[in-house]
Design brief:
It contains 9 helices and 13 strands. It is of the alpha/beta class. It has 2 domains: about 170 residues, Rossmann fold (3-Layer(aba) Sandwich); about 90 residues. Strand 1, helix 1 and strand 2 form a beta-alpha-beta unit. One of its GO terms (biological process) is photosynthesis.
Amino acid sequence: MPSDPVLILGANGNLGKLITASLLTQKVPLVLFGHSSLPPASEGVKSIQGSLVANDPNLLEAVKGVGAVVHCASSRARLKEIDIDGTLALVDALKKQHSSVENLPRIIYISIVDVDKNPEYFYFKAKLDVENILIASGLPYTILRTAQWHPFIKFIADELLGLKDPSINTVSVPRGVDIRPLAIEEVAAKMVDLVLNDKAEGLLPDMVGPQFLSMEEAVAVYLHSQSRKVKLELYEPTAEEYPDTMFRAMTDNAVDPIDKNAYIVGHQTWEEYLGNPNSTFW
């Protein structure tokens, strides 16, 4: 159990909220840092509003006295400012506040499987850049790369493929996109374990879900869970715009079969997620 406070960056985000809630139940002292909707300060909990950017004065305040940093902060719209320059500012702030090399806080960072294999996709490249910043920083670090989370796959189906519209009767699904969808709650639980074990572990084995599915199969299961009949038409994701750039990065993004000794494997299936009313939905 950490004795020094744990700083959670992106504490108001989808993953950060789950990590925060779990650590609060275990009475871990926390510093919560985010741009909005933070839990109120209470015994053992300090809330600081701010953004992970180079000139935010609250960042220096947030890192004071912390023993670990959970880095969940990210913005697809502000990748250079938040993810890259913000992480550089974080490293600089931690070194300024902790002059002794022996007492440098460890950083626990959430990343994505295969960011090193598909850096042509802008978001994967930014995540890889952040990984490299941490590796070169001299700070102790742990990096957990995970497969796509269940709520994100549902977002793809609803928003990017158009299934949010109940009147749709045909949908185009990208060909060649293979996934191992993963429960975000299990990702949060693993991140909490990494906080509690109180040591830096470098780059961990990839964390993936228990099922290997094509995007077509995942969409078909989703439609079945809603008792909907929609025709699926496969297409080649060749456009130079999002989301096709993302779909191409996700091509061959999952393997089957896997050596379970070489991966961290989750338990909840895609069907179980869709059938559970208590699941996390975005």
